[in-house]
Design a protein that fits this description.
The protein is α/β, with parallel strands linked by helices. It is built from ten helices and nine strands.
């Protein structure tokens, strides 16, 4: 199936290739943790960054959500909350539904608090036999004390074996130093121009089977397409419809209160015909 993402298109593995390698894929389980920033720090980029999380989930094979892929999400500002827990067997559509309902909150920014909460969720509900991948979506501009950053980052890195944490940002101003502290390497930091590379590399890491029998995600860059910073194209459509309806309603009200109405030629002919009928 083809999916259009923020600045590229992807082709996910077909159902036939997926089922052919189903046995080996089921043994390669993946637990995916999202940590998403809803604070004032990312106000401009929030919807684009949320759409990135949605797009990543959408390109993962639907049938893998039955047993193989389990996803959890932590959202944070100055405090942090579990938006939804790891729960193997949840449908991809249900996860997408939950992510769509994450709202921008504003407020202070504490990634360290979110990392601590994510660590506890991982420690409690992660499947021991599953690969763990953590995707942090933020600009890294927290108000955390550096000692707290180092402690939280060390715990989170240890939970993944040291190389399973990625940071993604669509902000122009981001903290390389803080994000690198969590990922352990700048190679795992993906900024706006590397988003397609993230889907290619990390998406394939999740989607492909260990034996390589399943096709990977194919990414085709689309030039000069900017990431959306609006809630969604659907909400834009509703706004347009509402605007049109309001304009029509205003026009009707103006007509009712006696503002002159334009007459076309057909109206004038009809009026003349009515006058002839009345006079006869």
């Amino acid at each position: 199936s083809i999916n259009t993402l923020m600045n590229f298109t992807t082709e996910t593995p077909s159902s036939s290739s997926s089922s052919a390698a189903g046995g080996s894929c089921e043994k390669d389980m993946v637990d995916l943790m999202f940590i998403i920033d809803t604070s004032a720090s990312v106000q401009k980029e929030f919807y684009a960054e949320k759409n990135f999380a949605l797009d990543l989930v959408r390109v993962l094979p639907e049938q893998d959500f039955t047993k193989r892929i389990s996803i959890a999400m932590v959202k944070f500002r100055g405090t942090a909350d579990i938006h939804f827990h790891f729960h193997p067997g949840r449908r991809r559509e249900d996860i997408i539904y939950d992510i769509e309902r994450v709202e921008h909150t504003g407020g202070e920014t504490s990634l360290a608090t979110a990392a601590e909460l994510a660590y506890r969720e991982i420690f409690r509900l992660r499947r021991p036999e599953a690969r763990l991948i953590v995707v942090i979506i933020t600009d890294g501009n927290s108000q955390d004390e550096w000692k707290d950053v180092k402690v939280a980052a060390k715990k989170l890195r240890a939970s993944t074996g040291g190389n399973g944490i990625y940071a993604v940002t669509l902000s122009e101003k981001y903290s390389v130093e803080e994000l690198r502290e969590y990922t352990g390497t700048e190679d795992n930091l993906y900024t706006n121009h590397r988003i397609d590379q993230f889907i290619q590399e990390v998406g394939n890491s999740i989607s492909r089977c260990p034996d390589g029998e399943r096709d990977g995600i194919k990414v085709t860059p689309v030039p000069d397409v900017e990431a959306s910073t609006t809630p969604s194209s659907t909400s834009m459509l509703f706004d347009l419809m509402n605007s049109t309806a309001t304009q029509l309603q205003d026009k009707q009200v103006r007509t009712k209160i006696g503002q002159p109405k334009k007459h076309n030629k057909e109206d004038e002919v009809a009026k003349a015909r009515d006058e002839v009928i009345v006079s006869s």
